[in-house]
User: What shape does this take?
Amino acid sequence: MIGRPTAAFDSESSGRYTAAVPGNVIQQLPPGLINRIAAGEVIERPASVVKELVENAIDAGATHISVDIEDGGRALIRIVDDGCGISVDDLPLAFASHATSKLHCDDDLFRIATMGFRGEALASIGAVAQARILSRPADQSVAYEIKNEGGLISDAQAAAGNAGTTIEVRNLFFNVPARRKFLKGASTEIGHLQDALLRLALPNPQIAFRLTHNGRTTMNFPVATPQQRWLAAWPDAFADAHLRLDVRDAEVSLTGLIGLPELAGPTAKHQYLFLNGRPIRDRFIQHGLREAYRGLTEPGRQPAAILLLVLPPQDVDVNVHPTKTEVRFRDSQRVHGLVQASIREVLLGSDLTPRAQPHQAADQPHVDLRTRLAEFFRSGAASASPSAAETTHDQPLIPSFPSAPPATTAPANAFSAPPASAASTLHSVMPAGIPAIQLHNSYLVAESEDGLVIIDQHALHERIMYEDLLNRLSRGPLESQRLLIPITVAATPGQQELLSQIEPLLGRLGIETGSLGPDGVAIHAFPSFLQRLDPGEFVSELLDRGEQEMLDLHQEELLHEILDMMACKAAVKAGDPLSPPEIEALLARRHLIDRSSNCPHGRPTTLSLSLRDLEKQFKRTGF
Ligand code: ADP
Ligand code: MG
Assistant: This one.
């Protein structure tokens, strides 16, 4: 039953209202016009029609939904479903505005479980196109059809039809030329339409979906497992680079797939969010997701993720926006926390060390890796310079390494040891007692259990420093050193404003500043562990960056940004020669941090190559 009937079509309203109403007489708008205005909110382009009609088919319990499009949706949009159908008595109401079978009383609005509920879609579509519904509930012996041409609704008539519903929408916006003119080319409209359909298909793997354009099938999703269906949203190359998310309690669940950090990209195009089966956009969830990847991807990168959140309907208001893509949570902080913590836990529980994958997709060039390997072996055997290691001996290059063993032994020349016999393992290039060799003063190469690892010394050290700082901060403010003579730096009034806003935060980090009039600040204290750095330079850079990119950040994000900056600056650089004890100290700390594969800026710290990978590269195996 469709509830809340409103006045059906009023023939007076179909006309053109071109005559201006004189003066400021207030007039009730005729229903036809109201519907056309309402249509403006939800029906923007063919994709919106598809979204509304497919939502209806899903609500009707369909198991097969096909969408046929002609000319990008300008000529025809046809949705065929095998759902519950609309009885002949209800057909006239289907096109009436505010007529829905999905809400019965006020309270229902607060526990909406269906996709639709506003009872406006069909009325809106009928107002701006030539629409036809053909429907037969399974228990009705014949199908009936009803038409709506720009608001002019026909009587229901018997017609031939299968159980279920077919809705045809022809000549979209035929009576709203301004809109029709703004439709884009067929391929653009089809792109939007595919995206809309994909977003409806992802959370509904139990339903088969098919899309044809001008008779050609362009999307085909058979009934599938959730994981199979989700993967359809991503490029094939992601198929082995994701983790499964599955967190549930009695009321709430968060399931889906998250991409490995290396899949994160410049845009959010591989992110799909669903709330109670409904595609949504939500900045809290997006932010929680990004936070979960903090330190694992470069800042600003958007992780790939398909997140399906289920909350009790009364905890969310979906009636915020006509297209229902925006929602309001009763407790958005809780949702943010849930998303962030669950994803973080999955990420930290997995081995994220990017593997060099020589056996990737066949069409990927292998040259790169092979060249790098060849270079590695060549330089390891021939070009490494022992003098580099010697010069580092008395340079305290690795600060805050309390556990570094004293550099007693003269720096061993890693390469003077005669190569062991040509055994098939890597022992031949890694003399005993040497934890790793440094190449080009930038990379450390060490043996791992099943192969070898190549470590970016700066990235790893930065990562260790970052974790270390975070750890120390959890115990209290960072140890700070008062400067005998305050250091002054230039600062605009805007920068000073920023400084005063983040003063408590800086206090926790051991930085103390004070104003020096309109164009300068004084630094009174600076963190002890950053003693290698020039406080003036650091604070100037903080102010510059702060003005450009930190203004909108929350305190917590800001803290991480500044920690990133500190860790980056305090860490050894590429090009810094390290002595063997320093290398050893660095590697010893590698296992102390819970996630050593990425530096805070998100670049990998470590690349690992298994013997198997090597054997494949050297064609020792048949693969
Ligand atoms: P809403 O979905 O918000 O209820 P619509 O205008 O989209 O409003 O649809 C109006 C009513 O028409 C729905 O409540 C439903 O009863 C009926 N309806 C629409 N499409 C279908 C369909 N494919 N199968 C069965 N019933 C449908
Ligand atoms: Mg609907």
About this structure: Residues 3-21, 358-430 have pLDDT under 50 and may be disordered. The domain at 31-221 is CATH 3.30.565.10 (Heat Shock Protein 90).
